[in-house]
Write a structure and sequence with these properties.
This protein is of the alpha/beta class. The chain contains 13 helices and 17 strands. The protein is elongated and about 80 Å long.
Length: 409
């Protein structure tokens, strides 16, 4: 199925600041800071980094009075830098108090994230939840009602577990867990609507840490509502495990048209960049043909014919070069984000792949003539030789972009 044939589930469009989520809007990439929000300077810097990397919404933790007091300062600091990314406040346990006590925080945020399992219990829970929804109505803010399998509403869990045990056809443990999460999300969304929050201000999520669980719960949720949906595998993990698990789950759902905004919850490796989760989210959407963010590099994996690592280094350098240029190119060269660049390591597939790319280079493999033909739109244009092939090819890529995308500006 091509991207043009892929049908999105029909959902209500929600405005989050200046970003539209759901409906006919493209799937939105979001991320979350891991700074102490009370440290306004550090949080401003990280939000700006995430936004520059391509995060269209950024969530920040609001868990203390110090954090709540810092939110307006963070918004002001971002605005001074020209970083207009919407901010989402992540609330647990005491969100009702913080939003009431610090109206400047409530005003500065563009969306509130509420976890029904962490709001309270009984009448106390209803009062706290109502308080946050009423504040969202007062300040005209969007709300994500985010159910998390690690912190579900225990009263609902006990009731539904008991009902299931007495059923003539009880669900198994995984099935009833998913059902509890879906019911929690939908019940709280209806409660929010009853309190005056419009459907066009509500986003739902049911986040789990197992791939099959996540797929199952979102299929059920999507089939039973038209609220905009936030996708994400919670606690996905580190490195390749987190990337593979998140991709496996989200790709299935996105292919089925489910999901309006995504976040890849990667645990950064020591010293690793927080922006990696943004890049992974973009690459999932781009590889599926749902959106284009940056020119893609096609490169062979290497084999016994490519004993030199030169083509690997060139592919890496070109990919980084393209990403580094996108903040400038995105406004200057419309359409460049869909460009394909091929960096191939030998004569077997090199010329063919290079011809299919917008611009490509076929480097010499082991024992091959030390020349590197370059192809543009299927035609061989030049053959590079010598010690400066990398720099020369990068210059050719820049010239190609100028010629083919510059006029469209």
């Amino acid at each position: 199925m091509s991207s043009s044939q892929m049908m999105r589930a029909s959902t209500v469009t929600v405005r989050v600041g200046g970003v539209m989520v759901g409906g006919s809007a493209p799937v939105v990439v979001q991320s979350m800071t891991n700074t102490d929000t009370a440290d306004a300077a550090a949080t401003i810097n990280q939000v700006a980094q995430l936004h520059k990397a391509g995060s269209e919404l950024v969530r920040i933790t609001v868990n203390t009075e110090e954090a709540a007091r810092a939110v307006a300062t963070i918004r002001e600091g971002l605005d001074k830098r020209g970083v207009n990314v919407p901010l989402v406040g992540d609330f647990h346990f005491n969100g009702h108090k913080l939003l009431q006590k610090y109206p400047e925080c409530a005003e500065a945020l563009d969306k509130y994230r509420i976890n029904p399992g962490n709001v309270g219990r009984g009448a106390n829970r209803d009062e706290k939840f109502a308080s946050m929804i009423e504040l969202a109505c007062r300040y005209d803010k969007a709300v994500r009602i985010g159910v998390n399998w690690g912190s579900m509403d225990q009263e609902l869990v006990v009731r539904m577990m008991d009902e299931n045990a007495q059923s003539s056809q009880p669900l198994d443990n995984d099935q009833i867990t998913r059902e509890i999460m879906v019911v929690s999300a939908l019940d709280n969304a209806r409660r929010a609507e009853a309190l005056g929050l419009g459907r066009d201000r509500i986003i739902l999520s049911c986040k789990m840490s197992g791939v099959q669980d996540l797929i199952g719960v979102y299929r059920a949720l999507s089939s039973r509502c038209d609220y905009a949906l936030h996708l994400g595998l919670t606690e996905a993990g580190m490195g390749s495990k987190g990337i593979v698990s998140s991709t496996a789950a989200l790709a299935v759902l996105l292919q089925e048209g489910i999901g309006d905004t995504i976040r890849i919850s990667l645990t950064p490796e020591p010293g690793g960049a927080r922006t990696q989760e943004v890049q992974v989210a973009q690459e999932i959407l781009q590889s599926m043909g749902l959106r284009s963010f940056t020119p893609m590099v096609i490169a062979c994996p290497g084999c016994g014919r490519t004993s030199s690592v030169f083509f690997q280094q060139l592919a890496q350098e070109i990919q980084q070069y393209l990403r580094d240029q996108m903040p400038l190119w995105s406004g200057k060269y419309p359409g460049v984000e869909a460009m394909n660049v091929a960096v191939m390591g030998c004569v077997v597939n090199g010329p063919g792949e290079s011809k299919h790319a917008n611009i490509g280079i076929s480097l010499p493999g082991s024992g091959e003539v030390p020349v590197a033909p370059v192809y543009e739109d299927g035609e061989k244009t030049v053959t590079l030789k010598g010690d400066h092939i990398a720099q020369e090819f990068q210059a050719l890529v820049a010239q190609y972009v100028e010629r083919h995308y510059g006029a469209k500006g």
